[in-house]
């Protein structure tokens, strides 16, 4: 890659892993507080740490990492950035960084203990919302800069389908921009005027709805870059071409269509929305499961083709012939395996009646640790092992590979313990987001739960193993960014694995953006227009609409 893109990607990676460090530390404190093993000093609050954990890991780490991956992959697949694209990427990066610093400072000084979902009526210091707004604007600038680079490629290569990596990057950015419209609307027109005191009240139901309009596709903004690695990087490591170019593109298009008009499945227990609209969005949620099932199908096809190519015989013999000694593959494989229960849990959550059992319990915390916390995070780890040395031109030694295996092993065991305990505790009724000591007049709610897997100690043990794994990962990151010797011989350079994708049979209509964006908006209007109008109409006087001056 040219030096400009390397530097840009490395800065994004640097911010991502700084957030990862603070975020995982907050996670460690979290499990100890819930276990009553730690009493916080008066200046530090349970909700403050929970907010830091969620914001830094789920929002900041992921977004900066994703842009590091996009920048490197776009330059690799469609060519070097022009000076304008580089400049706008830097501007976007700096705006995003400014927003991150502002929001983080507000959390650290205890002015924004409102959790990563920042629902009203909890109110943060207004500058926290300004920080969030800057973060989103920065990400849009970077996103548009990358789309500009893509459009230039298309102009030169008129009538041709773009390389799969570029297509998937643009899809993810389109999804992100449409999704952010909800959070931008609520932050700019509801939270900022309310938190600065320009208005007295806020329409809570509307703000929650606009948040979840954004909040659900947000999870696909995390997932799709992981899927990009599964579709384009994994086959290369396996030594096979992409299984089906058109299937991969169709799966991504389905995410544009169905990932947004589904936010009500986070609000199934809320009284302000009628059952009809909830049910409609439950049906649409089941549509968004399809592209993940298509992805699972493609992955098994990759494995079987690669395993058979390597001499695997019989029905399952190919399984043993996969490159298990390749850290890049094994970490992503485990990530995928975690997504089987992770996805199944999502289907349970989305089933209207079953949601009553799991909503607002620790089950949900278990669910997102085996979706974003493992399938996504561990795929990002699998990318980190080669992407950083690739960008810095340093060696990735055998010792680091061994440490990498220990790291992913620890992450898997830690996550298995922690998330299993969380799922079971949730089914037994342990609430999420609750500081237990003194809960509901009890000395401690911990006494309600005992047993091996239904114990908060198991959760804390899992959390501690995860923290150990995170520190090991950071050691590998620092070594491959600053310390490892520079590669000299050709075989010492780390490659950017990107598989061949045969697009001769792929229908051109799949890259007709206006068509898919148009249908996406149509579905959004069908799913949201009437319930939002009702929320505005039925809001108590004084909080009707966005701003009541
Ligand atoms: Fe979710 C809540 C429904 C996917 C993240 N979700 C959350 C929250 C987060 C989150 C963070 O309907 C909490 C929000 C909060 O703070 O309140 N979720 C779903 C559904 C899916 C889903 C239907 N979620 C995700 C992903 C996330 C994520 C992905 C992050 C990246 N979720 C819900 C619902 C709630 C919810 C409700 C609200 C609950 C409540 O009441 O609050 C689907 O997208 C899942 C589809 C996935 C599959 C799996 C396919 C499997 C694959 C792996 C193949 C494996 C291979 C390896 C090839 C159908 C692709 C083979 C290996 C072997 C060993 C055999």
What does this structure look like?
This protein has one domain: Cytochrome C Oxidase, Chain A (Up-down Bundle). The chain is globular. It contains 15 helices and no strands. By secondary structure, it is an all-alpha fold. Heme-as is lined by residues 117, 219, 222-223, 265-266, 285, 288-289, 292-293, 295-296, 299-300, 336-337, 339-340, 343, 346-347, 349-350, 355, 359, 364, 367-368, 371-372, 376.
Brief account:
The protein is mostly helical and 549 residues long. The protein is built from 15 helices and no strands.
Helix content: 55-70%
Show unreliable segments: 544-549
Small ligands present: heme-as
By secondary-structure content and strand pairing, the structural class works out as mainly alpha
Radius of gyration: 23 Å
Number of domains: 1
Q: What is the fold's blueprint, element by element?
A:
Layout: H1 3-34, H2 46-78, H3 83-108, H4 126-156, H5 164-195, H6 204-238, H7 245-258, H8 275-309, H9 327-350, H10 355-358, H11 362-369, H12 372-392, H13 398-427, H14 456-483, H15 513-538
Helix pairs in contact: 1-2, 1-3, 1-14, 2-3, 2-4, 2-5, 2-12, 3-4, 4-5, 5-6, 5-7, 6-8, 6-12, 7-8, 7-15, 8-9, 9-11, 9-12, 9-13, 11-13, 12-13, 12-14, 13-14
Write out key terms for the chains shown.
binds heme-as; 15 helices; Cytochrome C Oxidase, Chain A; mainly alpha
């Amino acid at each position: 890659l040219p030096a400009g893109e390397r530097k840009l990607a490395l800065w994004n990676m640097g911010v991502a892993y700084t957030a990862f460090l603070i975020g995982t530390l907050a996670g460690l404190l979290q499990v100890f507080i819930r276990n009553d093993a730690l009493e916080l000093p008066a200046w530090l609050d349970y909700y403050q740490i929970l907010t830091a954990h969620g914001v830094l890991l789920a929002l900041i780490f992921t977004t900066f990492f994703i842009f590091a991956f996009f920048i490197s992959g776009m330059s690799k697949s469609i060519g070097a950035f022009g000076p304008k694209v580089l400049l706008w990427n830097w501007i976007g990066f700096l705006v995003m960084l400014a927003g991150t610093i502002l929001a983080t400072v507000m959390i650290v000084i205890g002015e924004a203990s409102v959790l990563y979902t920042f629902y009203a009526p909890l109110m943060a210091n207004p500058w926290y919302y300004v920080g969030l707004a800057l973060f989103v604007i920065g990400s849009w600038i970077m996103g548009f800069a990358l789309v500009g680079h893509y459009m230039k490629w298309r102009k030169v290569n008129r009538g041709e389908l773009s390389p799969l990596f570029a297509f998937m990057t643009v899809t993810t950015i389109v999804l992100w921009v449409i999704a952010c419209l909800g959070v931008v609307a609520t932050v700019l027109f509801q939270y900022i005027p309310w938190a600065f005191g320009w208005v007295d009240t806020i329409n809570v139901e509307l703000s929650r709805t606009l948040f979840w309009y954004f909040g659900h596709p947000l999870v696909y903004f995390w997932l799709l870059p992981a899927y990009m690695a599964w579709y384009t990087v994994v086959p290369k490591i396996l030594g096979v071409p992409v299984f089906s170019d058109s299937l991969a593109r169709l799966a991504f298009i389905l995410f544009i269509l169905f990932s947004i008009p589904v936010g009500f499945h986070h609000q199934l227990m809320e009284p302000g929305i009628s059952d009809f609209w909830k049910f409609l969005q439950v049906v649409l949620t089941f549509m968004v499961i399809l592209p993940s099932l298509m992805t699972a199908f493609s992955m098994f096809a990759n494995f079987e083709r690669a395993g058979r190519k390597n001499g695997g015989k019989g029905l399952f013999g190919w399984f043993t012939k996969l490159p298990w000694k390749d850290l890049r593959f094994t970490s992503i494989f485990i990530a995928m395996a975690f997504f089987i229960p992770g996805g199944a849990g999502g289907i349970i959550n989305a089933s209207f009646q079953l949601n009553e059992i799991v909503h607002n319990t620790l089950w949900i915390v278990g669910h997102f640790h085996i979706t974003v916390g493992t399938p996504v995070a561990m795929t990002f780890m699998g990318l980190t092992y080669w992407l950083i040395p690739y960008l810095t031109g340093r060696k990735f030694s055998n010792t680091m590979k061994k440490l990498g295996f220990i790291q992913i092993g620890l992450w898997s065991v830690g996550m298995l313990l922690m998330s299993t305990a969380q799922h079971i505790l949730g089914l037994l009724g342990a609430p999420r987001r609750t500081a237990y000591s003194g809960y509901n007049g009890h000395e401690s709610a911990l006494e309600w739960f005992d047993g091996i897997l239904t114990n908060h100690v198991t959760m804390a043990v899992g959390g501690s193993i995860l923290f150990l794994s995170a520190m090991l990962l950071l050691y590998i990151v620092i070594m491959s960014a600053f310390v490892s010797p520079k590669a000299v011989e050709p075989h010492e350079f780390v490659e950017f694995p990107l598989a061949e994708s045969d697009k001769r049979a792929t229908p051109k209509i799949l890259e007709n953006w206006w068509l898919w964006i148009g249908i996406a908006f149509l579905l959004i209007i069908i799913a949201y227009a009437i319930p939002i109008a009702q929320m505005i109409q039925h809001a108590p006087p004084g909080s009707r609409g966005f701003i009541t001056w």
